[in-house]
Design goal:
Elements lengths: L1 H11 L4 H15 L3 H16 L5 H18 L10
């Protein structure tokens, strides 16, 4: 699954460092089995609640969740408590 996502992102990241970092984080999250167990279900729930309206802040929150899961998968310290 991540391979397909990674291929799409790779074709889009030609000049984007943020997308390259996102791709690397998703691969690590998937390696730890957090993609299908946590990230995708959360994104599906958010999409159901927000459809058909889009909110740019959702993108920021999604990136924050991905960043958090990445830090957890690498056993890095978390900046603030998880509530």
């Amino acid at each position: 699954m991540v391979t397909a996502i990674n291929e799409v992102i790779s074709s889009m990241i030609r000049g984007s460092i943020k997308l390259r970092n996102l791709s690397e984080m998703l691969v690590e999250i998937d390696d730890q089995s957090l993609l299908s167990r946590i990230l995708i279900p959360e994104m599906v729930e958010v999409a159901k609640m927000r459809y058909p309206h889009s909110d740019p802040s959702i993108d920021d929150e999604a990136y924050s969740l991905i960043s958090l899961l990445y830090k957890l998968s690498k056993a890095k310290p978390i900046d603030k408590p998880i509530v």
